[in-house]
Amino acid sequence: MVTRKKAKRAKSKAAANKSARKVARLNMKKPAIKTPARRNAPPRPSSKPWGEAGRALDGVRILDFTHVQSGPTCTQLLAYMGADVIKVERPGIGDVTRDQLRDVKGADSLYFTMLNGSKRSITIDSKHPKGREVLDRLVKACDVLVENFAPGALDRMGLTWEHIHKVNPRMIVASVKGFGPGPYEDCKVYENVAQCAGGSASTTGFRDGPPLVTGAQIGDSGTGLHLALGIVAALYQRNRTGRGQKVLCAMQDGVLNLARVKLRDQQRLGHGPLAEYSQYGEGVPFGRATPRAGNDSGGGQPGWILKCKGWESDPDAYVYFITQAPVWGAICDLIGKPEWKSDPDYATPPARLPRLRKIFDTIEQWTMTKTKFEVMDICNGYDIPVGPILSMQELAEEPSLRATGTVVEVDHPTRGPYLTVGNPIKLSDSPADVRRSPLLGEHTDEVLRVLLRYSDKEISEIKASGALSAPEKKAEAA
Ligand code: COA
């Protein structure tokens, strides 16, 4: 007969055995769990000084099939962040921008040099059978293929997604196209087409004038920036999945993303007039679509561009002035209208909305007595947000932009020193790598020999085939 005591002892023994087994199991499991966990664990924080632990994209190799502006913007940014960008160009011709808007005879244009810094250049005829072989080797050796050809051009080269994915399943294929899938997907697109198709032009300019395109290249460079983000995200996902994917940025989508506040206003229109647009104060009725708003601020704080001292002769003697509500009192004192602080017509933001024209005209009487930099200095003392209209000349000469590496001077073997825009994204542990753009085919031999490991004999054969040379040279080679 089992006594209660015995049963209790047996139970506690069983429990002890169970926990011993559990401990043993855990102990047994420990190495099994620990080893792979340790292998996959993130590395310990580097003890190297900041900025000396390599660059953010070290080890990422880009097969750069881009041309003109949108694609090159993307790959240049990745190169600044440390990626090895190998630009593939057509033998003898290269990226068409090499000789577009040329300012120095015989030298690559600024159009090209300012969009292709920190890259290597290799010339390959991608439609030549031998060229295709070299390209396949490059596909195997690279992590990302970036292109912004007209729709279908990459496929016509034989570089379909299926082919690339078969040759290198880890390859990310990133493309800029004018439009996404839909009625316009086959269209070729340049900057201003995208600005018009993406909603920027219809909302830029003055109400009584035609739609306007902006100087900032939001269609080209803007879409290149979007693509760079997509590539980095795809690289990150590949760490988990082990496979590449397609990344597509349509220029229309990129522009619309940047113009999203205007789509916001389109929807607000359904609920009444847009009170912060000056047309509201002027009593001009709104139509069905978001109107052009001149220099009205896009946000909830009214603003306008105002003349400053010297505006009669200097086209950039202007300042953007924002009447931010919390500093309204300081603005009134500055412009000599202290009574507006308590006047019910001016004291509150809603009261001011129908009177914006008069308010900005009055502020302008004050700004016209000062240079744009004086306005900036005085207003900043009161936390009033203002922006001097800086010319490109002033930006090129601005010491603080040189100091931060936003404007960089690089030397070039055929055109001499030139200014370029460095990396606008500052990483504290990855200093930007801003170097001059490559000459056409400057790194062809280096890439074939060192990266693709072709022997001297093979390189001679490839060259003799005409796959790396311009059409006229091919005739000689044949
Ligand atoms: N070897 C052989 N052929 C090459 C080559 C190489 N290394 N590199 C390019 N080519 C060929 C292409 O295969 C294509 O030939 P195909 O049309 O016979 O197939 C040809 O060069 C021209 O390419 P494409 O992209 O059509 O150039 P384009 O000058 O006619 O058009 C754009 C230029 C920008 C309008 C067009 O590329 C486009 O719409 N791109 C997408 C949107 C975009 O990025 N626009 C902004 C540009 S800043």
Explain what the structure shows.
Helix content is 41%, strand content 11%. It has 478 residues and is α/β, with parallel strands linked by helices. Strands 3-2-1-4-5-6 form a six-stranded parallel beta sheet, with helices on both faces. Helix 2 links the parallel strand 1 (61-65) and strand 2. Mean pLDDT is 92; it is low at 26-36. Bound molecules: coenzyme A. The site of coenzyme A has 24 residues, from helix 2, strand 2, helix 5 and strand 5.
Provide the descriptors you would attach to this structure in a database record:
three-stranded antiparallel sheet, elongated, 478 residues, 11 strands
Write the layout of secondary structure elements.
Layout: H1 4-40, E1 61-65, H2 70-80, E2 84-89, H3 110-113, E3 120-123, H4 129-141, E4 144-147, H5 153-156, H6 161-167, E5 172-177, H7 191-197, H8 220-241, E6 246-250, H9 251-258, H10 260-269, H11 278-281, E7 303-307, E8 318-322, H12 328-334, H13 349-352, H14 356-367, H15 372-381, E9 386-388, H16 392-397, H17 399-403, E10 407-410, E11 418-421, H18 444-451, H19 456-465, H20 471-477
Parallel strand pairs: 1-2, 1-4, 2-3, 4-5, 5-6
Antiparallel strand pairs: 7-8, 8-9, 10-11
